[in-house]
Write a structure and sequence with these properties.
Elements: H1 20-30, H2 33-36, E1 41-42, H3 50-53, E2 64-70, E3 87-90, E4 98-99, H4 101-107, H5 132-137, E5 139-142, E6 145-148, H6 150-166, H7 170-186, H8 190-193, H9 198-203, H10 208-231, H11 235-250, H12 255-267, H13 270-288, H14 300-305, H15 308-315, H16 324-354
Antiparallel strand pairs: 1-4, 2-3, 5-6
Helix pairs in contact: 1-4, 1-11, 1-16, 4-7, 6-7, 7-16, 10-13, 10-15, 11-16, 12-16, 13-15
Length: about 350
């Protein structure tokens, strides 16, 4: 495989533009030779056991990118809508199509950020996380309570992957594993395991709007920054993921056992990043997200995503670029940890297929 996802001729441009989870997964799978060389599997329909125990969003549709027609050429830097790609894709499993497992892992790793987890009633407290999507992609403590269920999302999809493999549907085994790796990567993101610094929370404890909008703005801004770095081909990010995944495929223990320590370590980087964005960009950045409404008709993730282009203009304006070195250093460490966990996860499935 080539060094850069966006230049790899084995990945059709119809599947582009690429987003952070695809870059993260791509570098992680590159580190495991056995996984990268597994033979193609037949594309099959989704096995029926999933919806019975894990409801999906009412707007979710399983699309099949194995059958595609290139329709457009979107700007790879300024594309922020995960649904908008250069191609149109099949709504039914294409017959007689096969695909390499590593490609399945990469191209479906953004699937949980589409409609899969949106518009559901999963918990009475999901408003705190901005809706059902946030609930399934985050887990953090706020005062004396815990909010979110991302570790459960990880475990459920890991189990679905194992069940699919056991029942002879390798295609959906890898595709469920792709969803699983999304949640695992989210749990290494400081803004998915911690929402606000304690001092900032107590200072603004009587202003729920301020807390919600600031947390949402900084969270999305960090996502925008990471994605832009990947799209620029920023070498240290890919190298960190490769190094971490190589260590992970040889590391003892299990992902499940290491999950609490992984989340805790990610949370320790939160405050430094949070205050960096407030101090570096201040009101200019917060104004970008002023239209985010916690009581709006759409989930917070969908609202903040619409602010991404304006946030990128603030974060990457010329006068601010030298300061990004601070974020780069912290994020390299975060991505190495994410790569390590993904390496362990992929190894546990790939080893069974290599034998």
């Amino acid at each position: 495989m080539n060094d850069h996802l966006h230049n790899n001729p084995d990945l059709p441009q119809a599947w582009a533009p690429w987003f952070s989870h695809e870059y993260i997964t791509y570098f992680a799978v590159r580190a495991l030779d056995g996984l990268a060389s597994l033979p193609p599997v037949a594309v099959k329909p989704r096995p029926p056991f999933g919806d019975k125990v894990w409801p999906v969003g009412p707007k979710h549709i399983d699309i099949y990118k194995e059958s595609y027609q290139e329709r457009r050429h979107l700007d790879p830097v300024w594309s922020f809508d995960y649904k908008k790609r250069n191609g149109d894709f099949a709504l039914e499993p294409p017959s007689e199509k096969t695909i390499e497992p590593w490609k399945v892992l990469v191209i479906y790793s953004t699937e949980p950020d589409l409609d899969l987890d949106h518009d559901l009633a999963v918990h009475k407290n999901q408003k705190i996380t901005g809706g059902s999507h946030g609930w399934r992609h985050m887990e953090f403590r706020l005062l004396t309570s815990t909010f979110g269920a991302a570790p459960q999302s990880f475990r459920v999809h890991k189990d679905f992957a194992a069940l699919a493999f056991e029942n002879g549907n390798d295609y959906w085994g890898w595709r469920y594993l792709s969803r699983c790796c999304h949640y695992l990567a989210d749990l290494g993101n400081p803004f998915h395991v911690r929402v606000l610094p304690a001092f900032f929370l107590m200072k603004n404890i009587f202003s729920g709007q301020t807390l919600f909008k600031t947390a949402s703005a900084v969270h999305q801004s960090y996502e925008v920054y990471v994605e832009r770095r990947f799209r620029e081909g920023f070498g240290p990010f890919g190298e960190a993921l490769l190094q971490g995944a190589r260590e992970g495929q040889k590391a003892p223990g299990s992902v499940q056992r290491l999950l609490p320590a992984y989340m805790k370590k990610a949370g320790k980087t939160h405050n430094a990043i949070f205050y960096f964005f407030l101090e570096q960009y201040g009101r200019d950045l917060l104004d970008v997200f002023s239209r985010v409404n916690p009581n709006g008709p759409s989930e917070t993730a969908a609202q903040t995503n619409k602010c991404s282009a304006d946030a990128a203009r603030v974060i990457f304006r010329d006068g601010s670029l030298p300061a990004l070195g601070f974020l780069d250093g912290i994020t390299v460490g975060i991505l190495e940890d994410v790569g390590r966990m993904l390496g362990m996860l992929f190894r546990s499935f790939a080893d069974a297929k290599v034998r």
